[in-house]
Amino acid sequence: MTTHLTIDFVSDVSCPWCAIGLGALETALKNVAPDIQAELRFQPFELNPKMAPEGQDITEHIQEKYGSTLEQQLQSREAIRQRGESVGFTFTSGARSRIYNTFDAHRLLHWAELEDVALQRKLKKALLKAYFTDGQNPSDHDVLLRIVGEVGLDVTRAREILAGDEYGAEVREREELYTGAGIHSVPAVIINNQHLISGGQPVEVFERALRQIAGAAPPTTALA
């Protein structure tokens, strides 16, 4: 008998640990199939909601935000690269030179969920690849529209969304829902609207949690 789960993956497209966490979660889902099946949806979180349109040099940004020295940053980037490699995700050295505002990317992800959750997943992965592997700007509308077309979504409709403020209120509402529930770092993986797994965990942690939750009693409380 197959157990069906719902998974909300709260994350940002400029978060390296979100790329790692997603790769690990997808591997875990393959390992537990077909006994456990899951609908995976992506929810918005902005690491830098006040980031200017032109972005900021990433070394400068991380130094200002976390107080990290260049040496510490280089060590962290290498650790991230290795973790990404272990789950099949490529972090290209030197590709990510700036940090950008990601609000428009989240608006498109919200729209994609309404269209088709499978296409939302493809869009999310393509956005992560564009930034971390290809060194592209996830706030650039031309970049966003090209990716939309590549994953099979309607480019004309996406252009209309980007030209206005559609889904802006909905994205803000969801961001406030999750921060109000105590989520202040990502990735945050919420299973069946009840069970929280924080951080870019290894495959075995996700797999163990999926198996335990699939065998547990139905939740009695949930995020509203």
CATH architecture: 3-Layer(aba) Sandwich
Major pleated sheet: 4 strands, mixed
Question: Could you name the CATH topology?
Answer: Glutaredoxin
For CATH, the homologous superfamily is named as Glutaredoxin
Mean pLDDT across residues: 94
CATH class value: Alpha Beta
* Strand fraction: 5-15%
What fraction, in percent, of the residue positions are helical? 40-55%
Span from first to last CA? Answer: 29 Å
Main β-sheet, spatial strand arrangement: 2-1-5-6
Please characterize this protein's 3D structure.
By secondary structure, the protein is of the alpha+beta class. It has one domain (3-214): 3-Layer(aba) Sandwich (Glutaredoxin), CATH 3.40.30.10. It is 53% helix and 13% strand. It contains nine helices and six strands. It has helices at 16-32, 58-66, 70-86, 103-115, 117-133, 141-151, 155-163, 168-180, 203-214, and strands spanning 3-11, 36-44, 56-57, 98-99, 188-191, 195-198. The strands form two sheets. It has a four-stranded mixed sheet with strand order 2-1-5-6. A two-stranded antiparallel ribbon has the order 3-4. The radius of gyration is 17 Å and the shape is globular. It starts with a strand and ends in a 10-residue tail after the last helix.
Features:
single chain; alpha+beta; Glutaredoxin; two-stranded antiparallel ribbon
How is the secondary structure organized here?
Elements: E1 3-11, H1 16-32, E2 36-44, E3 56-57, H2 58-66, H3 70-86, E4 98-99, H4 103-115, H5 117-133, H6 141-151, H7 155-163, H8 168-180, E5 188-191, E6 195-198, H9 203-214
Helix pairs in contact: 1-9, 4-5, 5-6, 6-7
